[in-house]
Write a structure and sequence with these properties.
- The structure holds 2 protein chains of 2 kinds.
- Chain A has 11 helices and 13 strands.
- Chain A is α/β, with parallel strands linked by helices.
- Chain A folds into 2 domains: 214 residues, 3-Layer(aba) Sandwich (Rossmann fold); 76 residues, 2-Layer Sandwich (Alpha-Beta Plaits), CATH 3.30.70.1340.
- The two termini of chain A are 45 Å apart.
- The longest helix of chain B is centred in the middle third of the chain and has 31 residues.
- Chain B folds into 2 domains: 234 residues, no CATH class; 88 residues, D-Maltodextrin-Binding Protein, domain 2 (3-Layer(aba) Sandwich).
- By secondary structure, chain B is mainly α.
- Chain B has a 4-stranded mixed sheet, with helices on both faces.
- The chains are: A alpha/beta, B mainly alpha.
- Chains A and B meet through helix 2 and helix 3 of A and helix 1 and helix 7 of B.
């Protein structure tokens, strides 16, 4: 422990993290901080360096440069003390199929100095009726809850979750969220990576958006959305004169420039045949859009407006959708 | 709640997962039973099988030729260890010869012709038997006077030699496969990686494999030794405790080798290949099926240093000659050295993720 009076308030801090795999720069100078009792959401497209970052924080990988402090301790000196106090769910763990839920929790419990009883944990993750069922017989959602049970049976102060709900149906996803929220209510801190905007919006107090191994935005979700300098998004698909469908062709450069010049429009992003504009003054933007379409005799396939979301932030920062599906 | 012993829990989990894996149970417990049954059948008393031979007239269908064939068949049939099949067409007869369904094809004549594959020992046996039957006929039935004393003494049959070798081979197989596969499996599942983020001591992880092996070793030895002594009448002349210590040392050695072989492999296939590469020389050169003394002299020191050679020699010395632990000291030392070395290297190069 150091003498910094704020040390108790920060569960996790990393400064200047770097990691190369051969010539590939996976993580290129990332700073992050997770406050005690809060959830830090880490977002980024596939291959952005999320998992590499998380694995360095978990002590699985050693960083090439930078400093990591977990619960006031560093990995080199206090590895075992940190492991006693963190809980980890990894993305691809397959548990031993032939063990029952109870037996698996019992095994993981034996690694820790302090732990909850297996049956208490089963109740918390809603698997009491699956106590003696083998892992191989569980559904995807049940397996994921069991994985989280294994990560929190020793009452960790910091929980790492790497895409805990990927591939689950909405109902199973909500049950996982409830477990995570319970953990936060109990005072625990969480680091979460996810592909789902809804998940980040519901669970995360702070967000870190990374791409190409770098942080491209960070802060509270509202703050990040505000950095778009636009509260609303107007999406539409223009139609050539006389055409009946957009045909999937990219919007011509010339139209793009015209849309960019419209009154009330802050930014324009072309997504194939569709256009996504952010606007601080939506009505003005739409009015000038219609005038522009009329003037060029362009039609419309569709037109939507909605308040800016994290997805919009993500798209405008990385040019990619958060998920490919 | 207070902390449970992680070593005990890890060992418990290893035993549970093993017992719930039907294939693994088969190889450890059922396979030796099957092997024993086959051995018992192959080496049952009075199991000398008649040699199958074929006979065919020089000119099939020709009365004189067929009559000569009848006469020769009668001569040969006096040897009850010749089982004779009469053919009507050369094509059939030669097909059977190629398939080794018969070892020699006899064609009567002066002299009779024997068609055979000269490199096969079965053909040689058949040839000698046929010659003996012909000579007996020529000499009017006078047999050379020798006294036959069959070797039936317990402990000197081939089966008695073979059995300890098979026990050693089984200890090697179950040790290496049991440990090597289990490690490759937890690595493939990324379960190993998950264990790494817990405070689990790495030594506990390895020791749990060793300890679970010990538990299965006791069951395995019971099954195999009881079959050997009770059903196959193989001698067991040593002290049970000494035998147990030797087997445990053998099991630890091969568990250590299993960990070493699995220490880098990323896939089950990779581990299988490595296992076969390591075990193959020992199947052949460690005196499981035949004495390694048949190999050239220059190879002897190398063969004696193989871990299975020492184990087989020691098992034989104990079971057949009633030697104690002290007498097999050098073999034990070789075992311990292999086990310790494998374990030490495995710890150094082990791939955790």
């Amino acid at each position: 422990m150091n003498g910094d009076p704020k040390a108790g308030k920060v569960a996790l801090r990393a400064i200047g993290l770097r990691k190369n795999f051969g010539d590939l720069v996976a993580v290129d100078g990332i700073d992050l901080e997770a406050r005690a009792g809060e959830c830090l959401g880490v977002l980024g497209p596939n291959g952005a360096g999320k998992t590499t970052t998380i694995e360095m924080l978990e002590g699985l990988l050693v960083q090439d440069a930078g400093r990591i402090e977990v619960l006031g301790r560093t990995w080199g000196a206090d590895g075992d003390a940190i492991r006693q106090r963190i809980g980890v769910q990894l993305q691809e763990t397959q548990f031993l199929d032939k063990l029952s839920c109870y037996e698996l929790l019992r095994l993981f419990g034996s690694f820790y100095d302090k732990r909850d009883g297996e049956d208490d944990v089963l109740a918390r993750i809603g698997l009491t009726d699956k106590r003696d069922v083998h892992v191989s017989k569980l559904s995807g959602g049940q397996k994921q809850r069991l994985a989280i049970g294994c990560a929190l049976l020793h009452r960790p102060r910091l929980l790492f979750l790497d895409e805990p709900t990927t591939g689950l149906d909405p109902q199973a996803r909500r049950r996982v969220w409830e477990i995570i929220e319970d953990f936060k209510v109990g005072g625990g801190s969480v680091v979460l990576t996810t592909h789902y905007m809804e998940e980040a919006e519901r669970l995360a107090d702070d967000l870190l958006i990374i791409d190409h191994g770098k942080v491209i935005a960070s802060g509270a979700p509202e703050t990040i959305i505000a950095t778009l300098h636009a509260e609303n998004v107007v999406e539409f698909t223009p139609l050539r004169p006389g055409a009946t469908d957009a045909g999937g062709e990219r919007v011509p450069r010339e139209w793009e420039d015209a849309f960019r010049a419209l009154d009330g429009v802050d930014a324009v992003l072309i997504d194939g045949a569709s256009v996504r504009m952010t606007a601080s003054r939506t009505q003005v933007a739409i009015a000038s859009l219609f005038a522009c379409l009329d003037e060029r005799e362009l039609g419309l396939v569709d037109l939507r407006t909605h308040r800016a979301t994290l997805e919009d932030v993500f798209l405008s920062l990385t040019g990619k959708h958060l998920r490919d599906d | 709640m207070t902390r449970r012993s992680e070593l005990r829990e890890l060992t418990r989990v290893r035993i549970l997962t093993f017992l719930r894996e039907p294939e693994a149970l088969f190889w450890v417990f059922v396979f030796p039973l099957v092997l024993a049954a086959v051995l018992g059948f192959a080496f049952r008393e009075g199991s000398l099988e008649p040699t199958p031979i074929g006979i065919i007239a020089e000119r099939p269908g020709d009365a004189t030729s067929e009559a000569a064939t009848d006469a020769l068949t009668l001569v040969l049939a006096r040897d009850e260890l010749l089982s004779i099949e009469r053919f009507a067409s050369f094509e059939d007869a030669r097909k059977q010869l190629t398939k080794a369904a018969i070892d020699v094809l006899v064609i009567p004549g002066a002299p009779p012709t024997l068609e055979l594959e000269p490199n096969k020992s079965e053909a040689e046996i058949a040839r000698v038997r046929i010659l003996r039957a012909l000579e007996l006929e020529a000499s009017g039935g006078a047999e050379a006077d020798v006294r036959i004393a069959p070797v039936t003494e317990k402990g000197s049959r081939y089966l008695d030699f073979l059995f300890p070798g098979l026990l050693g081979m089984n200890l090697m197989g179950t040790g290496m496969w049991g440990v090597g596969f289990a490690i490759a499996d937890v690595r493939r599942r990324k379960f190993l990686k998950r264990l790494l983020v817990t405070p689990m001591r790495r030594s506990s992880f390895f020791l749990s494999f060793m300890l679970s092996r010990l538990v299965f070793l006791i069951l395995e030895l019971l099954v195999i030794v009881l079959i050997g002594t009770l059903l196959l009448d193989v001698p067991f002349r040593c002290n049970v405790f000494d035998f147990g210590v030797l087997s445990a040392v053998g099991a630890f050695t091969f568990a250590g080798l299993g960990i070493l072989v699995a220490s880098r492999a990323k896939t089950i296939e990779g581990v299988s290949g490595m296992m076969n590469l390591v075990m193959m020389p020992m199947w052949l050169g460690s005196g499981v099926f035949f004495s390694y003394e048949r190999f050239p002299d220059g190879l002897q020191p190398v063969l004696k240093l193989l871990p299975l050679t020492g184990l087989n020699d020691a098992l034989r010395a104990m079971m057949l000659d009633g030697d104690g632990l002290a007498a097999v000291g050098p073999e034990l030392l070789v075992q311990v050295a292999w086990g310790a070395l494998s374990f030490a290297v495995a710890l150094k190069i082990f791939r955790w993720q």
